[in-house]
Amino acid sequence: MSSSVQSLTVLGATGSIGQNTLDVVARHPERYRVFALTAARQVDTLFEQCRRHRPRYAVMVDRDSAAALRARVREAGLATEVLDGPQALCAVSEAPEVDAVMAAIVGAAGLAPSLAAARAGKKLLLANKEALVVGGELFLEAVRSGGATLLPIDSEHSAVFQSLPDDASTWERRVDKIVLTASGGPFRTRDPDTLANVTPEQACAHPNWVMGRKISVDSATMMNKALEVIEARYLFGLPPERIEVVIHPQSVVHSMVQYRDGSVVAQLGTPDMRVPIAYGLAWPERIASGAAPLDFLALGALTFEAADARRFPGLPLAWAALRAPSGTTAVLNAANEEAVAAFLDGRLRFDRIHAVNAETLQDVLPSKPGSLDDLLLLDEQARVRARHVIQRWQA
Ligand code: NAD
Ligand code: MG
What we know:
Elements: E1 6-11, H1 16-26, E2 32-39, H2 43-53, E3 57-60, H3 63-75, E4 81-84, H4 86-94, E5 100-103, H5 111-119, E6 123-126, H6 129-146, E7 149-152, H7 155-163, H8 171-174, E8 175-182, H9 200-204, H10 213-221, H11 223-236, E9 243-247, E10 253-259, E11 264-268, H12 274-282, H13 296-299, H14 317-323, H15 328-344, H16 353-363, H17 372-393
Parallel strand pairs: 1-2, 1-5, 2-3, 3-4, 5-6, 6-7, 8-9
Antiparallel strand pairs: 8-10, 10-11
Helix pairs in contact: 2-3, 4-5, 5-6, 6-11, 6-15, 10-15, 11-14, 15-16, 15-17, 16-17
Residues 154-156, 228 line the site of magnesium ion.
EC number: 1.1.1.267
Pathway: Isoprenoid biosynthesis; isopentenyl diphosphate biosynthesis via DXP pathway; isopentenyl diphosphate from 1-deoxy-D-xylulose 5-phosphate: step 1/6
Domain 1-deoxy-D-xylulose 5-phosphate reductoisomerase C-terminal: 150-236
């Protein structure tokens, strides 16, 4: 595979991960060809990307945006065909011409196309952690039955994957625990009593990473780490009690694996998503990512501290949801998506995101989802419940 050109679909191309992916791809034109680019509604950005990368297809979920893009593409004389609607996301993920799919849509909206890629046996580069948190065992089953290769793009999970031995059948036996690092986000040292009044702009001002707004808020509440604990459980198969979180404000150690003999293997690098993206794209090879090398002398100290339960009450929900009946992680994700959207909209106080998540988890009891439709129904039920809780907290 390494000598031939790989044909790539980028779901969520206009976002932070999508743009970083295209940056890496553009450095290696002999290796990658862009088959399809997708976005929700960012016409200008997707048009520029079409001009630069000449995909066979561009998908806009929003139909008016698709019409606008179609007109611009035609006017510019590009050969790209513009498709619209959520179904088209699946079509460009499972198309026979596609070798690899970068799943970089934000939220549960990315589940269906990620599953389509898994079932079609693609190399699936998973940034869209919510898809795995919602899909759970069903997602893994689709990967197995489709013969897909699932590669984590989330920096922590890429780090764990890089620190594990190749033979997955030995992980359970050799590994004591996985330690996920967390930066602690913008409020790591802020007085927890003042969290009621923080604004979306303050919550999105991450100290180490530039990311989309949803994941930025998740980093500020540490719900991002809660989702990552769930993601790690599904990706690596260790029981939840063998997954730990430690705060590491410099974001240089991207995560670690502790082995039975006490040895710890970690992956380090500058906080730049192009590193795990390049790793996933080229795996099992290594290619240039464009990231600056680590400068140990400039770094000075690497520090570690415990996550404060009063400041980050959402983090323990990960283990609670993993111990509850299957489907519970989907409920947690749906509640959190609704709560974060309400916070970004100015309809919910920052410190009440947790209340919405905890209450929704208590109220919505899943009955073992067995299909994508079951999951989507459960997701909708949880959202309805969460919106209700949000309304009550509004005032
Ligand atoms: P973003 O908000 O910057 O981009 C999201 C992309 O998804 C955009 O292209 C948008 O058009 C598209 N999109 C949004 N809603 C959609 C919908 N309903 N249907 C179809 N497409 C839709 O987000 P991001 O920061 O790039 O994050 C993307 C995913 O990667 C998230 O799941 C996030 O948790 C994960 N991730 C991001 C980072 C990072 O550094 N940004 C790191 C690790 C993991
Ligand atoms: Mg991460």
